[in-house]
Write a structure and sequence with these properties.
Helix content is 39%, strand content 12%. By secondary structure, it is α/β, with parallel strands linked by helices. The strands form seven sheets. An eight-stranded mixed beta sheet has the order 3-10-11-9-8-4-7-6, sandwiched between helices. A hairpin with a 4-residue loop joins strand 6 and strand 7. Helix 28 packs parallel to helix 34. The N terminus is likely disordered. Bound molecules: thiamine diphosphate and magnesium ion. The site of magnesium ion has 6 residues, from helix 19.
Length: 1087
């Protein structure tokens, strides 16, 4: 279909005055009707589409023949006489039949090759049903007008499928347009199709410029009445591209065709799907919306639906009554969101889904928790009481027994507002009688930011369950109309949807489209026609539905769930609704939307409308309606009474990712070893340095061979560089059964071409070898995946991934650390504060290439100051010195920030992420020049069993032997150490200057720094950093040094480094070198 369409579109400009319909006729008939058109088409070499016209002798009776084709046919006939194979098979057949004496009109045979459609093509027979039968024709002449009219009907059908949604009655208020466009598509006006040669734009043409006019003047069907009445009763054969016919209906009067198309595409559902590049998928959708009776619901279904609407509305009404001025972001006007979600869940459960992970914004969230997740109402109501948390653990009481008692982990949090908290519930789905797990992921106010988190969490759950087709776990994302179209993260999340290492095999998106964003009208908040247009990027079908038609909503939700289960691709349900109140319960909407709200005030609620409809239909009685309402009211009241008796809330009731079994029975202050036996190091090192075992068949690049050889030599000499250290950390964790996932832009090779975790066969496409996946037969799986070029989306995804299983090392690497700030929201809203707000831990690792190497403002700094500023450690408190000093610090911090200077330390800190009895995000500033620095290597001795991560690497050279005579101690972090060391040597100052590296900046190693300062009583203390003074770690370490020195000392730490700057680094290489030289000179000045 796509090809045919593009072909027609491509030809159009070549044929003056041609319309797509005319061209289609041309294509089908196989000859050009005038000579001016023939030349360019012949030049395009598309004569293969031609079907055989008859020989000249039977001109009068053969419908195909006309004067203009006779020369062409004659040539063909002569050619056939010489060699039958020289002409198309259809000509061959035609000439044979004619020569054998077939009567006029009987020699034609449908061309055999034409009817074989490609994957995305519509069979040519579908375009003209008369051609569907092959073999000798019926003998009836085919009138060109009949073909034209059939093609016109075909085009009309297609127009409804393509553009019908623009005309659908989607807005319950009847004042707005879901697509912000008041015009009527010309394709939906019959005069465009030249029935009886009515030229477009005449009085008979259906002229509309305003939808309002359309609503006032004409219900949908009236449009067809404006068309030529006599055409309405003509019967047309239905093409294969429509399902509007009942099983025995192969042809219908035009009036009926239009009526059924109106019903399918222009009532309360607008189906947007014809942009999808799959005929199979388009047909699947057509079938579900066009089949007569497809949308009907039985009485039981209607009653269930009414009960659900009643609960949704009843919940909001109850809250409004009990807490009149509390913000709850009410769902009134879009109550159908609740039955919609329940339908999606029911249908998905029926189709085999066992676990659903949801992400949603503020609107209707409490209602979703109550009525979709069925979270006990009293737990929700206690959130309104502003109670303290019972399990908000006091660190003073931190002991094992207490923790086990609570069966949650040690936590001192600040909590979050009620409409942000997550939850996790396992329950029986009453409709399907199957168990289902529902999780609503906690989210910040930042709209849509939770989307990639949900996807990552879903993907991880699928991965751990071996659900490679996404049959058991799925995600649902809810959106507001303004946020869905306005926030870029929505796009970033969509682009992950079909990537092999990121897909969740289809997400169902539901937009609570209340046609307003806070106070902003959609006409000012988006440039796209629909608020859902972003979804078109991934070929997701979009079902717009008038949310005041509960049965239409049900239908699209069922279809959405079936779509996801069938094709495992994203789908969008756009609930076009309204917002009965202001943005929140204390806002006045009349200030800004007076007309809209005057209309809203007159609107009956969907519950009232639907119950009236069902009473009318005799499906329910008035008493039954009242009864359902009262029963729910009673349930709410009882829960309210219970909630009032509660004196505390429990955080564990609001966890979205409970790690059952992870914390229980663990000493929260005991860490396991991070060192590894030498044999393991060797084994991993060797495997990592080898091509695949069947190396003969696998052609490795010469450069890679060199790298592998160099690695092998290092292993033999018991040394590691950065890449080898990392591989050993990953490999040893894999050996221990820990899944490792490394994701980010170009991580497989590594931005700096140092990693090479995927070897590419040089002569065979897509043939790769991943050494770390082939270390041990029983190892955990290793995933290394290049991501889309996104930070916000991918970091969010990995964070979500890390939330599912604490026994996994999930790392996200930025291309250069500089780019992390396009994901700043994930860092601020989730990584830095997630545990505090939502009692949720994550051991995610951020690898941020960092260092001033003269590469300019944007390839230099990963902005350590930004992360350090977000650390929750008190600069003025020297923690109590106990045996568990280091681990208690780790436990108490919100995140760990490190700048390792040796591969061994990098190895240990990665392993420590898993060795810790709890999980904390780890930010590592990773090096660039150190990746190949001859000195930045470690020995196996620093990685074996008895070794561990070193928070500080003190001076161990000659200066440390006679500390009294040391005149200066330089404290630094990261790669500047190697530059300082070299400069010290060049200046002959090894005896007088000690250089100490701080490897873990936060939590700050107060104890070790204090000891190091004390060790050199006569030395001045310098902090040397390569970042500018208003950047780097300076402002973080300065007050902590003061605390480490316990403020009693006369000694002070002073700063050496670049001055303040607005930009992180100069763009001039010369200037960079000058600054770097100056920095070293300043570091050793006065000696
Ligand atoms: C990223 C972000 N920017 C701004 C806001 C402030 N804000 C809160 S709700 C809202 C309007 C949201 O409109 P919509 O997405 O249509 O949802 P609705 O409230 O209408 O359900 C805005 C702008 C926010 N929460 N997050
Ligand atoms: Mg909105």
């Amino acid at each position: 279909m796509y090809r045919t369409r593009s072909l027609v579109a491509g030809l159009l400009p070549l044929l003056p005055g041609a319309t797509p319909e005319r061209l289609a006729v041309w294509l089908v008939k196989g000859y050009v009707q005038n000579s001016s058109a023939r030349a360019p088409l012949a030049a395009l070499n598309i004569r293969q589409y031609s079907a055989a016209p008859p020989p000249p002798t039977q001109a009068a009776a053969e419908p195909f023949l006309n004067g203009s084709s006779s020369v062409y046919v004659e040539e063909m006939y002569n050619s056939w006489l010489q060699d039958p194979k020289s002409v198309h098979a259809s000509w061959d057949s035609f000439f044979r039949n004619a020569s054998a004496g077939a009567g006029p009109g009987q020699a034609y045979q449908a061309p055999p090759s034409l009817a074989v459609p490609g994957k995305h093509e519509i069979p040519i027979t579908a375009l003209v049903p008369q051609f569907a039968t092959s073999g000798v024709s019926t003998g009836l002449p085919i009138d060109e007008k009949i073909i034209d009219d059939h093609l016109a009907v075909q085009a009309i059908i297609r127009s409804y499928q393509t553009r019908g949604h623009h005309m659908a009655d989607l807005d319950p208020l009847g004042i707005n347009l879901a697509d912000l466009d008041a015009s009527v598509a010309p394709e939906l006006q019959l005069s465009s199709y030249h029935f009886d040669n009515i030229p477009p734009g005449t009085d008979n043409d259906f002229q509309l410029s305003k939808k309002q006019t359309y609503y006032e003047l004409a219900p949908p069907l009236a449009r067809s009445l404006l068309w030529q009445e006599k055409d309405m009763d003509r019967v047309f054969k239905l093409p294969a591209t429509t399902y509007i016919g009942k099983p025995d209906e192969r042809a219908l009067p035009l009036r009926e065709i239009l009526s059924r198309l109106e019903a399918a595409y222009c009532r309360h559902i607008g189906v947007e799907f014809m942009f999808i590049n799959s005929l199979e998928q388009c047909n699947w959708i057509r079938k579900r919306f066009e089949t007569p009776g497809a949308m009907s619901l039985d009485a039981e279904g209607k009653r269930l639906l009414l009960a659900r609407v009643t609960r949704a509305a009843g919940f909001e009404a109850f809250l409004a009554r009990k807490w009149t001025s509390e913000k709850r972001f009410g769902l009134e006007g879009c109550e159908m969101l609740i039955p919609a979600m329940k339908t999606i869940i029911d249908k998905s459960s029926e189709l085999g889904v066992e676990s659903i992970i949801m992400g949603m914004p503020h609107r209707g969230r409490l209602n979703v928790l109550a009525n979709v997740c069925r979270k006990p109402l009293e737990q929700i109501f206690t959130q309104f009481a502003g109670l303290e948390a019972a399990d908000d653990v006091n660190p003073e009481r931190c002991n094992l027994i207490y923790l086990i008692e609570l069966s949650i982990f040690l936590f001192k949090g600040s909590g979050d507002v009620k409409y942000h908290l997550g939850t996790y519930i396992e329950r029986l789905n009453r409709v399907t009688n199957k168990n289902i797990r529902l999780a609503v992921v906690a989210n910040p106010s930042h709209l849509e930011a939770v989307d990639p988190i949900v996807q990552g969490k879903t993907r991880a759950e699928q991965f751990y369950k071996g659900d490679s087709e996404g049959k058991k776990t799925m995600s649902i994302l809810l959106h507001g109309d303004a946020a869905f179209s306005g926030q870029g993260i929505v796009y970033e999340t969509f682009t992950l949807s079909d990537l092999p290492d990121y897909t969740t095999r289809g997400t169902i998106h539901v937009v609570a489209n209340n046609q307003i964003g806070f106070t902003t009208d959609p006409r000012h908040s988006r440039s796209s026609p629909y608020c859902t247009d972003v979804a078109r990027v991934v070929n997701a079908p979009i079902f717009h539905v008038n949310a005041d038609d509960p049965e239409a909503v049900m239908h699209v939700c069922k279809v959405a769930a079936e779509w996801r289960a069938t094709f495992h691709k994203d789908v969008v349900v756009d609930l076009v609704s309204y917002r009965r109140g202001g943005h929140n319960e204390i806002d006045e909407p009349m200030f800004t939307q007076p007309l809209m709200y005057s209309k809203i005030r007159k609107m009956k609620s969907v519950m009232d409308k639907y119950s009236a409809k069902l009473i009318d239909e005799g499906v329910v009685t008035k008493e039954e309606v009242e009864d359902v309402r009262n029963k729910y009211e009673k349930i709410c009241e009882e829960a309210y009474v219970k909630a009032q008796k509660e004196t505390q809330i429990r955080y564990k009731d609001w966890l979205d990712s409970p790690w059952s079994g992870f914390f229980e029975g663990k000493n929260p202050l005991k860490m396991s070893n991070t060192g590894v036996i030498e044999e393991t190091l060797k084994h991993i090192g060797k495997r990592f340095s080898s091509a695949p075992p069947n190396a003969a068949g696998f052609v490795v690049h010469k450069g890679i061979e060199r790298i592998l050889r160099a690695r092998m030599e290092m292993v033999e000499t018991r040394t590691v560089d950065w890449a080898l250290g990392e591989a050993m950390a990953f490999g040893s964790l894999l050996k221990e059964g820990i899944h490792v996932r490394l994701s980010g832009q170009d991580v497989e090779r590594g931005t700096f071409s140092h990693r090479h975790h995927v070897l590419h066969h040089q002569t065979s496409d897509k043939s790769t070898y991943k050494p770390l996946c082939n270390l041990y037969p029983d190892q955990a799986p290793y995933t290394v995946c290049n991501s889309s070029l996104s930070e916000f989306g991918v970091l969010g995804f990995e964070l979500g991934y890390s939330m599912t299983n604490p026994n996994a090392l999930v790392c996200w690497e930025a291309q250069f650390g500089d780019f992390f700030n396009t994901a700043q929201c994930i860092i601020d809203q989730f990584i830095a504060s997630g545990q505090s707000k939502w009692v949720r831990q994550s051991g995610i690792v951020l690898l941020l290439p960092h260092g001033m190497e003269g590469m300019g403002p944007e390839h230099s700094s990963a902005r350590p100051e930004r992360f350090l500023h977000a650390c929750s450690e008190d600069p003025e408190t020297f923690p109590a010195e106990t045996e568990e000093f280091a681990i208690r610090q780790l436990h108490d911090t919100n995140m760990i920030v490190a700048n390792c200077s040796t591969p061994a330390n990098y190895f240990h800190i990665l392993r420590r992420q898993i060795a810790m009895p709890f999980r904390k995000p780890l930010i590592i500033f990773t090096p660039k020049s150190l990746l190949r620095h001859p000195e930045a290597k470690s020995s196996f001795d620093e990685m074996v069993e008895t070794t561990e991560f070193r928070r500080v690497i003190p001076e161990t050279g000659v200066a440390s032997n006679e500390p009294e005579s040391v005149r200066k101690v330089i404290f630094c972090s990261g790669k500047v150490y190697y530059e300082l060391k070299k400069a010290r040597e060049e200046r002959g100052l090894d005896n007088t200057v000690a250089i100490t590296r701080i490897e873990q900046i936060c939590p700050f190693p107060f104890d070790l720094i204090r000891d190091e300062i004390n060790k050199y009583p006569n030395a001045e203390l310098k902090w040397v950093q390569e970042e500018h003074k208003n950047m780097g770690a300076w402002s973080f370490v300065q007050p902590r040094f003061e605390t480490a020195m316990q403020k009693s000392s006369e000694r002070r730490l002073s700063y050496v480094g670049r001055g303040v700057s607005a930009s992180p680094a100069t763009g001039s290489k010369r200037q960079h070198l000058k600054e770097a030289a100056q920095l070293l000179a300043d570091a050793f000045v006065g000696l």
